[in-house]
Amino acid sequence: MKIIYTDSLVVGAGLAGLRVAIASKERGLDTLVLSLIPAKRSHSAAAQGGMQASLGNTVKGMGDNEDVHFQDTVKGSDWGCDQQVARMFAHCAPKAVRELANWGVPWTRVTQGPRQVVVNAEKVTIEEAEAAHGLINARDFGGTKKWRTCYTADGTGHSLLYAVDNKAISMGIPVHERMEALKIIHDGKRCHGVIARCLITGELRAYIAKSTTIATGGYGRIYEVSTNAIICEGIGQAMALETGVATLGNMEAVQFHPTAIVPVGILTTEGCRGDGGLLRDVDGHRFMPDYEPDKKELASRDVVSRRMTEHMRKGKGVDSPYGPHLWLDITLLGREHIETNLREVQEICEYFLGIDPAVDWIPVRPTQHYSMGGIRTDATGESPQLKGLFSVGEAACWDMHGFNRLGGNSLAETVVAGMIIGKYVADFGENNDLVVDTSLVEQAMGELSTEIDALIDGHGTESPYILKQEMQRIMMDYVGIFRNGPELDKAVEGLKALLERSRNLIVKNKKRHANPELVEALRVRRMIKVALTVACGAAARTESRGAHAREDFPQRNDRDWLKRTLCCWPDANALEPEIHYEDLDVMQMELPPGYRGYGIDNTIPHPDTATREAEIAVKLAELGEHADRYTQQQALMPFELPQELMPKNERLIDKLSAQVGDKNS
Fold this sequence. Notes:
Blueprint lengths: L1 E10 L3 H12 L4 E5 L15 E2 L13 H11 L6 H20 L10 E7 L2 E7 L20 E2 L5 H15 L4 E3 L1 E8 L4 E8 L5 E11 L20 H7 L6 E2 L4 E8 L9 H4 L3 E3 L7 H4 L9 H16 L9 E4 L5 H7 L1 H11 L8 E10 L2 E3 L12 E3 L4 E2 L11 H23 L6 H20 L6 H15 L3 E2 L1 H17 L14 H25 L8 E2 L7 H4 L1 E6 L9 E6 L25 H15 L5 H8 L15 H13 L1
Helix pairs in contact: 1-4, 1-11, 2-3, 3-11, 5-15, 13-14, 13-15, 14-15, 17-18
InterPro entries: FAD-dep_OxRdtase_2_FAD-bd, FAD/NAD-bd_sf, FRD_SDH_FAD_BS, Fum_R/Succ_DH_flav-like_C_sf, Fum_Rdtase/Succ_DH_flav-like_C, SdhA/FrdA/AprA, Succ_DH/fumarate_Rdtase_cat_sf, Succ_Dhase_FrdA_Gneg
Enzyme class: oxidoreductase
Keywords: Electron transport, FAD, Flavoprotein, Membrane, Oxidoreductase, Transport
């Protein structure tokens, strides 16, 4: 039995995992990263449009700050997020962007003077301030009041991942590639590491650590069509689920991105619409203003996806061999803009569709894109049930996204949460000893070895490939953009039947090394369990909130459902998870539940909302009209961060105001 010891173990080498590893290494902790693939191929590289941070450098971002970003994030979450976490995030995002610039990210910069942009299908000229010249630029994204999304053309994730990975390399952080973690070593109270399998040799290794951070990304590949990389199969969430102790949060909160290309499902960035692109139907009609006259194409993602689906249901989709779709029109942006700021979109259209987006409209429709749910953690990123188990990024339910994520907040979360949680992980490593219980290691290793032996030497009848296809089809058909009770019940029953069948798998390829069929067999049973947490959570939640849209329960029901779904799987032989709930306390919220600004307000209010609003009004009145926004915020909802992250963020408006003050003094 091979055992490898370290202080800080990180599972997943995307942006979130690497940023945690860097934070641990900065403290002098022995740090090690496991990855299915070379780090620079992680799914973080697929993020195109940008990263939200309230820098306020551009004329369209002037007046932006942490308060506005926080409010956009909470409203975008449909009041499902942890508001203290959203505050921590909004406060640290500008710091993360500037840190990344120091690490070599070539952010697109502001050029002083006039520039032409497209706003609401019209070309307008805006004037950038001389003082803003050379500062980090920002573009418009859905669900935001200000232009806040910092970018590097439309290859932002690629740029960030290369810079952060190069930083990790410069610090000597080892990444064990082609290693798949499949089992968490724990005693029911504390996590001690993982058992991982080498995808090349088939060797099993035990990685023992003071802290273990799961940063394996989302679970989009439980669906048939997804913008996610094929490695985003939810195995990190499944490992936590299979401890029988750790909980997953809000697994039914699954986001569908409005503009994935048809038929392959590859993403075209929200930056297309942020820069002025339009959605058109079969008649060439721009239909979003008919549904959302205020935000139009730049409504929140969950809203745009539903409006597109509604429009296709009315017969306004474009028929194709792959089903109906709509058009994304970016031709009005012009070739120069596309070839400068939307280069990846141009290449995707050329390579996968054979079209030129500067001339041709792009066939798109909503496609599974992001997982708001994940391993439930507290504000420090640690599992409340298993000490020493941390999670970060899309693998986690930290929970800054609630039931819908704003575009640009995902890429931001990877590095911001990695920055914040990385410091808490490092604190844990400094304050706790490495505990090695060889009997626990042997037990976990033995259980995984037995599972592999049964697959190789057994006489099952079920193909892992067929089970996976059936699971993905069930999720696509019954747990999609619009949901209803009868279809969700079908999904749950169908998935339970698949889980039962997965206990009788057959692997025709009997090799123990480099065996893709064995890899699939080890994953599919775990994926079905993750799918069941999504379907069961969706069936139980009889309301509509964010990306969870119930046709039979169209109202957002704050009275009965302002709560976080928690799933666990204590009985390994059970066919479905146990579900319980965690209430969101309105009386602790800085921004009590309200109207999001889309469609009609059909919310069933929480009984504490009016009380909290009145309490906030009294507190603000007591502070007086001269209290600054920092004093007001702390009075309403104090939040904590590591001390080095607490200083205020400086913005261009602060410098300009100071200059005016100097002239007047």
